[in-house]
Every structure is written in structure tokens, then in C-alpha cells.
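Handout, section B. The chain below has 310 residues.
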Amino acid sequence: MRHDDARAARGGPGASAVPDGLLRIGGLTAGPGRPAVMAVINRSVDSFYTAAPTTEAAVRAAVDAHAAGAGIVDIGGVRAGRGPHVSVEEELGRICPVIEAIHDEIPELVISADTYRAPVARAAVAIGADIVNDTWAGADPDLPLVAAEAGAGLVCSHTGGLDPRTDAHRSRYGLLPEDVVDDALSGVLTLAERARSVGVPPERILLDPTPDFGKNTRHSLMVLKHIRDFADHGMPVLLAISRKDFIGESVDAGPPEQRLPATLAATAYAVEHGVAVIRAHDAAATVQVVDMVGAILGTTQPRRSVRGLR
């Protein structure tokens, strides 16, 4: 991944209209073999793992993530799962001051707004957000237009038809285990085509198969196993697996605090299989995984190489 010296117009100079699997947004280019880390910064009061209780804490977390090597920060104000109702005004109050402060303090850092509501997305991109991270599969049909009009990126996700903020229960996808992959792939590609039809270019459309959303653990593992199928469609793939339930169940780990080693193992697999963006709570550890896999594959160079040379 790389940052240009100055933040260019969204999409950067020389962005290609030919889909090649690369994300180009602001001064960032990332793709298969050289993925970007998207650091999670939650402003929700009931997040399943960690949260920043104040704007100041959220900005500090962004500064730390940037210093650790994250190329993107994802700012969210509403818990993904069930919980107390959060109004549009509350969500705006939680994320917009953070986005504005980060944009002012670290202008080269790409900012993602984690929201499924167009009014929130519109306010976020107006003050510095570069990506609209819609984790609820186009529940608000205006989101692609918001992204297109702002020149922002858009995450196209798969939830198996769930309404926002509901949890999967006995989700079914056909008769074969692999049928979930077909359903997820069809879902994200349909959303991506809609985004392209209103003017979002492919290098700013991220495909997210969305493990745990509308899926049981076996569904999520099947989607991860076949993540290359998503990467083969010429648009960057985002994978959000950090400390999720399917990770914990796969290795019989308890609460999210115990799920980091398994998360990093799954991350290494994803990097090897073409993911362009890894969404993570643990930026520094995830950057090391990305760098190590890249060094093994030869897509990146070691950060330093002095052993045996002096």
C-alpha cells in the first residue's frame, strides 16, 4: 500500500477505468498482495468489543492506528447487532466530530464512515469521509447516490436479507454448503452494479461478503474459504473478521478478548487469497501479518534486511 505526498482529488491521479482489483481512494492504493489495514474505531456505547468513549479518545485511536501502519480508519456510531435505538441525530453526533477532527489532524489518512443510513453518510462525506461502509446490504437505497455524488467509495455487503441490526437465526442458503458463496457473491455483485450505474467507479467499490451477518459459523467459514471468488471480479475486496463470533466458535475461544490469534491466522489466509482491505481492531498486529505474508509472497519487501550483511 502507499500514500501520495498530498491528498489528491478522490480516486487519485491516473485512476484506471479498467477493473483490476485495486482500491484507489484519496492518496491510497491497495489491492491483492498489498492490502490496506482498516482500523476499527467505535463510538457506539454498546460495541461487542472496544469503543472510544469520547471524541478525543477516538482521535487518539486514529493517530495510533495511523502510526502503526493502518491506511484507513472506520468510524462507527451504531452497534451492528441488536441494541437500543440510535436516532440519526445521535449517530451524527457520535461520528461527525471524530471524522472532522481526524481529517484535520491526519489529512492523508483515508476515513470510512460505518453507517447504513444515507443522511448520516451524506453528512460524513461532506466533512472528510472517503468511504461509506454500508454493512447492511443497501437497506437504504440512496447510499450509492451519496457515494457517487461525493466521489466517495462504497462497501457492498451481504446479509442474507436481514434487516439492519438484527441477528442471524437459522439462516439457510440452498442445499449445499457452497450455496452460501453463490448467494453472497450474487448479492454483492448486484449492489456493485447498481453503484456503478449511478457513477461509483469500480476502484472505489469494495465487495464485502460480511461473515457473521446473516450467516452461521459454517457459512462464514465457507465464504472465507472461497474469498478468492470475490477477488476475481476485478473490484477490491474488504474482509471484516476481527474477533467475530465465527472466529471464536471455530477455535472454541470465549469472549472477543480471546480471539486475536485465530483472527490473525484467518487474516493471513485472506491476504494470501486476494483481499484488498482488512478491517481490524488490532491495527499493529494486523499490519505485521500483512507485511509478513507480503514478504513471503514477494509482493512487498522486508521492512529492513541486515542479517548476514554486516
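Note. The two ends are 29 Å apart (CA to CA). Compare this with the example in section A.
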